[in-house]
Amino acid sequence: MNSEYKVLKYSSNKFENIDDLISIEEPLEISLKYKESDKWINQSLSITMRTPGDDEDLVRGFLYNEQIITNISDIDSIESYGDKVGQYNIRNKILATLNNSKNINISKIKRDFLTNSSCGVCGKSSLDALEIIKKNKTNPSEPKIKKEVIVKSPDILREGQSEFSKTGGIHASGLFTSNGELVAVREDVGRHNALDKLIGCALKNNQIDPKTQFITCSGRLNFELVQKVLMTDIGIMIGVGAPTSLAIDLANKFDITLVGFVKRDSFNIYTNNKKVIVG
């Protein structure tokens, strides 16, 4: 989703007025509805800045990646509500109703999301906490991907984007087969939202197969992005930019192959090179 803005552009030693397409950024308030002691509870969970569109996939991926739910079937319904607001006349509130509330840790939601929804948690405590949530590592040796597949994936990802060519100001995440075929792609001004949308879409369509797939993201790779991929059991993650130190630490801990700085003739493997065919 984009909008046209008036821009003063400088190029070739001159200024000119042009119309430029800009990616839209709007807030989305995510709320949960669940039963507690036979009473329905509505709980505001998080506010995220996103590009409108695929909001239901964003909520599915967010709830699953943060392990608020452990199965996509725990969601009974997702619906936008409230008045259409702002210059784009869209709804910026969305409600997920859960049909299985037995395993929801309400105190954890209030502590981790209502107080830290914008930045998450960081440091060694996060790695230790993930071991409680995530018992198993990814497969240490599968799938195998060729170096040619790695260097081509960012270009294939960009070709699969509908908005980047229009605005140049939007991130994307793509789900690929090990031979380089694009399964699904989602876009958003936020890197985390793009990945949540992708995983939510793939879960909804039953498309995730960790034995044969990897994920490529535009931009750099940080702890939270690697954490979201980890929840799917997909063991290869590729980024156009650099990873952070904590992203590398997390990937090492769970045998994820982390590849960054991907260009047409080069890339860096930061962790577990067993899944990359280098010969």
Give an overview of the whole structure.
There is one protein chain. This protein is α/β, with parallel strands linked by helices. The protein has two domains: 26-120, Ubiquitin-like (UB roll) (Roll); 145-277, Cytidine Deaminase, domain 2 (3-Layer(aba) Sandwich), CATH 3.40.140. It has helices at residues 55-65, 106-112, 124-133, 147-160, 164-167, 191-204, 223-230, 245-253; strands spanning 2-11, 14-23, 26-36, 39-50, 75-81, 93-98, 145-146, 171-177, 182-188, 213-217, 236-239, 257-263, 266-271, 276-277. It has a six-stranded mixed beta sheet with strand order 9-8-10-11-12-13. Strands 4-3-6-5 form a four-stranded mixed beta sheet, covered by helices on one side. The protein has a two-stranded antiparallel sheet with strand order 1-2. The termini are far apart.
